Amino acid sequence: MASYPPPPAGYPYNGGGPPSIQPHHYGGSYGAAANPYGAPYGAPPPPAPAPYGAAAAGGCGNGSLFAALVPSSSAFPPGTDPNVVACFQAADGDGSGMIDDRELQSALSVYNHMSFSLRTVHLLMYLFTNTNARRIGPKEFTSVFRSLQNWRENFQRFDRDRSGKIDASELRDALLSLGYSVPPTVLDLLVCKFDKTGGRSRAIEYDNFIECCLTVKGLTEKFKEKDTAYSGSATFTYETFMLTVLPFLIA
User: Residue 203 belongs to what H/E stretch?
Assistant: First the structure.
């Protein structure tokens, strides 16, 4: 069986705290006047985000952290890092050109020298394919690795105490940098949900940080589809609500 290639050089922490943040607020604290999505009340929807690779306003200069999360064809993109190609081939034990959830979990864990839960892997695969097939090809695999590099940089940017974990205040700032102003009550729920100690440490590790951000991103985008007036409120049928929420609960 082929061995995994060595991981690329890590992203060393920079000295000092994170740069100032100019967030695009989604809503606000409970009871506050609605000003969702960073636009004045009743204003037309904001322009569509720039394509992957374009500089994002107020972002990290690497484009949207989530812009690579789109289904794609099965070929490796031109110029793909040979290490990523070799990593995929090592994970693809049956040579089918596709890898399943456990093969992806193993590849991510070995390449990044850290564990990834199956739940995080399932959520990544769902957002890439918009299905529960739990199989991805080379192009999606490449996009996963590109996105993970950006997410690690974002995680390290807000891990101020260099603990390898994000606490509630650091998570708040990280989500703000992605454009989501999460109310304190929701923030507390997120920390408790994604804390591997069941809420005792009040902090989340890198793989659960990814899952947390993907959950907030995915649910917010689904909500915005129904909030056509950008008012901060929306109406869902029971079926639509269940289909919106359940994929994030059972990933």
Answer: strand 203-205
Radius of gyration of the chain (CA): 19
Min mean pLDDT across 131-145, 156-170, 180-194 is at 131-145
Calpha distance 220→228 (Å, rounded): 13
Read off the tokens for 156.
Answer: 């390290």
Q: What are the tens digits of pLDDT across the range 34-89?
A: 444 443 333 444 444 433 333 333 333 333 443 343 334 458 888 888 888 888 99
Q: Is 166:204 a contact under the CB 8 Å cutoff? A: yes
Q: Residue 79 gets which letter from DSSP? A: T
Distance CA 71, CA 129 (A): 5
Q: What pTM, to 2 d.p., does this model score? A: 0.59
Question: What distance in Å separates the CA atoms of residue 64 and residue 68, rounded to the nearest whole number?
Answer: 8
Q: What is the token pair recorded at 191?
A: 């920390």
**C-alpha 129: how far from chain center:** 14
The SS3 of residue 137 is coil
Q: Which is nearest to 55 in space by CA: 45, 65, 69, 70?
A: 65
CA–CA gap between residue 184 and residue 30 (Å, rounded): 9
82's tokens = 């040979």
